[in-house]
């Protein structure tokens, strides 16, 4: 059963029957709003949103990053499946897979961000969401709708944090500005 998260809400990633999740998938989906063309016809536009996963240690230092220019973490526990340049199609447009058991012990938080590489702001994006899926069962665990169109072109979506022996997910939903994750680091640090 999926939980629809609100901004700031936290959910444990412990399995309902006991135990903890071992492999998860963070999916990002979006559609571009059709621009008004000649005679009021909608004209498709191409918007390149990019999902990134930032790995932080217990001191808040960036230990590694996974994004469209580095599709795999140094240790291999986090993998991006590839860059979608348009958002066309149904379901997850970009996917980041995480082997939670393989995440290095010094990494305590995984922060997922999204930014518009092409620079359009979120007022030109619709049906945007991020979701966490249990890779072993294919079941959606949590979903966060990236609603609230605005003049920002990036968002700090969510973080997955070590929580005792397991993990938890917190929906952040903070707006930011930047075309790559490097531009978002000052804004991300406020949520560690």
Write structural notes for this entry:
The protein has 192 residues and is mostly beta strands. The chain contains 1 helix and 14 strands. The radius of gyration is 16 Å and the shape is globular. The strands form 3 sheets. It has a 6-stranded mixed β-sheet, with no helix packed on it. Helices cover 5% and strands 46% of the residues. It comes from Actinomadura napierensis. This is TerD family protein. InterPro entries: Stress/Tellurium_Resist, TerD.
The strands making up the biggest β-sheet line up spatially as 1-12-11-3-9-8
Strand content: over 45%
Major sheet details:
6 strands, mixed
Please report the total strand number as a whole number. 14
- Can you give the mean pLDDT? 83
**Helix and strand run:** EEEEEEEEEEEEEEH
Global morphology: globular
Pfam families: TerD (PF02342)
Protein name: TerD family protein
Domain TerD: 1-178
Topology summary:
Layout: E1 3-4, E2 10-12, E3 23-32, E4 35-36, E5 42-43, E6 49-57, E7 62-66, E8 78-80, E9 94-99, E10 107-116, E11 125-134, E12 140-145, E13 154-163, E14 166-176, H1 181-189
Features:
mainly beta, six-stranded antiparallel sheet, TerD family protein, Stress/Tellurium_Resist
Brief digest:
It is built from one helix and 14 strands; from the N terminus they run ββββββββββββββα.
């Amino acid at each position: 059963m999926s939980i629809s998260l609100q901004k700031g809400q936290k959910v444990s990633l412990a399995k309902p029957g006991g135990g903890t999740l071992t492999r998860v998938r963070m999916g990002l989906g979006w559609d571009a709003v059709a621009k008004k063309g000649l005679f009021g016809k909608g004209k498709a536009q191409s918007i390149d949103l990019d999902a990134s996963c930032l790995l932080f240690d217990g001191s808040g230092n960036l230990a590694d990053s996974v994004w469209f220019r580095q599709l795999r973490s140094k240790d291999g526990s986090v993998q991006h499946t590839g860059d979608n340049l348009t958002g066309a199609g149904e379901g997850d447009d970009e996917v980041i897979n995480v082997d939670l058991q393989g995440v290095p012990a010094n990494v305590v938080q995984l922060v997922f961000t999204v930014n518009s590489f092409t620079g359009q702001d979120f007022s030109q994006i619709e049906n945007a969401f991020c979701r966490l899926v249990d890779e072993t069962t294919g079941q959606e665990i949590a979903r966060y709708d990236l609603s609230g169109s605005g003049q920002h072109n990036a968002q700090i979506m969510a973080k997955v944090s070590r929580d005792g022996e397991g993990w938890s997910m917190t929906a952040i939903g903070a707006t930011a500005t930047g075309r790559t994750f490097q531009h978002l680091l000052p804004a991300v640090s406020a949520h560690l």
